[in-house]
Structure formats: C-alpha cells, structure tokens
Write the structure tokens for this entry.
Amino acid sequence: MEFMTSAIYGAIAILLLYRYLQRRSKSPLPKGTKSPPEAGGAWPIIGHLHLMSDRPSPKLPHFNLGALADKYGPAFTIRLGVRRALVVSSWELAKELYTKHDVAISSRPLVRANKHLGYDFAQFGITPYGPYWREIRKLANVELLSNRRVELMNHVRLSELGHTMKELYRAWQDSKDPSGQLPVEMKQCIGDMNLNIVLSMVVGKRFYGDTPETKQCRRLMRELFYYSGLFVPADALPYLSWFDFGGLEKKMKDCAEEMDALVGKWLDDHRRDPVDYSSKDFKPRDFTDVMLSIVDKTDFKADYDVDTIIKSTIMALVAGGTDTTSIMIVWALSLLLNNRDVLKKAQEELDNKVGRERLVVESDINNLEYLQAIAKETFRLFPAGSLGGPREFSEDCVVGGYHIPKGTWLIVNLWKLQRDPTVWIDPTEFKPERFLTKHKDISIKGSDFELIPFGAGRRICPGADFGIQMLHLGLARFLQAFDFSSELVDMTESAGLTNSKATPLNVLIKPRLPSHLY
C-alpha cells in the first residue's frame, strides 16, 4: 500500500513537471533576444543533475561543465530538474554580470543544504539578497573582517604559525630518519593550524592533540563542506520534497544539529564570563565578543533571534576561514613540490630579502614578489570554490545577447574561466612568472575579471583579504623554515563545496633555520 501511494505521488510529480516544462518552452522571448543554447545529454526528468555529482561520472562538476563549454560556448543552460541554470565560463560575460547585472544576480538559490546547514538561510554568505543581508554583511565587513580588525588579530596568526613550526621542529628532533628528514602529512598539519587560527580569532578557542572536541570539530567541518556542496533531489524536483532520497537531508540535519550544539556551547562560554560589553573600556578578545557588544543594538530587519544571528555568523566565519585557507596552502605547496625549480626560487627570494636570522613577518610580504606570484597562480589554477557560489536571477536580464528569465540559477565556472587560452599562455601550466611580466598588475580581489577566485560584485567573499594574507604568510613561513621533498604529488581533487586535494600530502621535511628560531 505504501509503495502504491509513493508511485501515485511520483506519477503526479512527473505530470506536473512535464506541464511546467511545456509551459516554459512556449513562453515568447522579448523582441531582439534569443535563448542561450541548452547543453545536450539531459536525462529524463532530472535533466543534467547527474553532471553536478562525481557519481556515476568520475569527473567533478567543474570538469563536466568545462567540457560542455568547449562544445556549446561560454554561455549555455542546463536543466536541474525543473530548475534552469545559466553556466558562464568567460571573463567578458562575468564582467557584464558582476557590473551591469550585479543587483539582479545578488541573491542565492534557496537550496536544501543552505536551509539545513545555514540556520534557515540566516548565514550571511547564503541568505537571500535584501535588507537582512545588507545589515549582516555590513557587520561582517566593518566589524569582523575589516583590514583593521584582521590586523588587530595579527598576534593570533603569528602565535599559531610559530606553534606549528615549533611542533614540527620538535618532532624532527625526536623522530628524524638517518638521512636527517622527518615524514609529515602536511594536509592535516595545515588544516589543524588554520583551524586553531580561525577558532582563536572567532571564539577564543585552541585545539591541540586528539581530544574528543578536536576530533568532533574536524569531523563536523569535513561534513559541513561535503554536504554544502551537494544538491538533493528536492532542489531540482520540488514536487518530491516529501521524500528524502538516500536519507541525505537527515544527514544534513544531524550535522547541523551537532554543529549548533558545539557553537552554542562556545557562545554560552562567552556569556558566562563577567564581561561588561557596554563598558567604554571594553576590549574584545575575539569576534564573538565583537558580536555580543553590537548585535543587540542593531536592527537586522529580520525575524531571526539574536542567538541565531550570532551562531550562524560564527559558523560561517569558522567554516569559511578554516577550509578555504587550508585548501589554498595545500595546493600551493603541492604545486611547488611538483615544480622544484619554482620552489627553489621562492626559497632563494626568502633568503635574499628576509634571510635566515629572523622569521618572516607580514611586513615582509610586499617585498616578496615571487611569493605573491606563486599565490596568484595557485588561485588561478585551483580556486577554492571552482563554481563560485551559485546565484539566482531576481529579474529578467539580457546577458551577452541572451534573454535570461527571472528565477534562473547562475553558475560561474571559475575553474574554466581562469584557464582561458585567449588570456593565459599555456593556461594549464603552473607558471608564476606570468604575474611578474604581462599579468603583473592583475588583482585577485574582483576588479580584474580574468582572475576572480573570490568572486566579484556585491557578494564577493568578505574574507578575501584574510585568505590572501594567510596564504602569503603561511606559505612563506613553511618555505623559510623547512626544506621539503616528496614523490610526484597526486593533484586529484575531491567533491564538495570546495575543491580540496583528494589524497594526503606526504612529504619529508628538514629544518633550514637556526634552532633558536623554532
């Protein structure tokens, strides 16, 4: 009986879907416009949804959509069930979208992952465009992620970097092999370091060793980013929202519930401290203190309560700051290990401009032009979010001569866009020198659309400055402190919201500084 009921509901859903698509196909276009080409290979009912997963195809979504761009051009559409998405992979169209149509593309699709994992869309990175977004974004930009606030937290970054280098040096002293080298898995080492930096800045926490809370936090971060990058069937087929295929939504809810309990505990710890947030002499210790001192005074023009706003912001800062920064340092080091000549030049630059008698600090970075070029080339080849953050058109637009109706989703394939052979010579090759010559003046902060790893426009990643600083300083410290060697590094990417390295990064390290600097 239960199976028969499900079958009836499924048949009704398919009929409604068919009629919906039939109506859309008959909608007349405005005069002088045309529809973008639709990619072939759509499956019945689900359309191109199979391209947005690594199963059954072994390829990741940005590879699949990049191959379609080679066939259909820099702008084409795909169908994700009843949803239609415009896929863009040229910098010219990206520039048009992020300038002329920036307001129209500043909202986010209301997908299930964002609902379940983002406090019912309260998180500032995924909340729809509108009054609440403007208020919470202003808080993030001015009070939390401004250059001044990040600079005030400089001591945290230096402290955690120093702790990591010291721990590696001690491990080398205790366990080096007969050749004077120590095997290290750098992916976890870098991840733990960044987790402590971000947790210390946001909630004043540090995790060392394999305590239960440390393991839980690591696991939840992995789950959060994995689930956040997935579509569930109800996103593409709303008529089937009553059915949780594979229990995926339940897993998302379980992850969100556990994460909420952990973040809630951190918030309660702050509230138990005898701190007068209204005092003129109040000095915030971390970002949570900043939020507690101002959130009650802010009209967010939304129905979310204060705790939801604070917890969702904490979660966004911790997740975003930890994962993406770790990913970029891992990719940079992996690229250097596979290009030993570049690694040697980077260390020579550090030796010449900083030396080996003191540790590199942030004020040195401006003089390390080759290191900055390495960072730009890493962002170009392996942007942390290969498909950016999906957007939704809030009004009808004409983009590149194509009519795009309201409600269409937008996917900008940054991975494909940043490998454009008309812009970059040998676009798939790792060549930092390109940013010392022809492309020297290209910025990665959203003003030069050939290279937009953080996106552009109103919804550019608010943590861009922090991410760039951490990549520069983290990479500089590692390269100055240790010599690295390894077999050829596997550059396979993994599925999820961010494109992290799929396999461990196993290396051999050897100190290259005087012992008193560790």
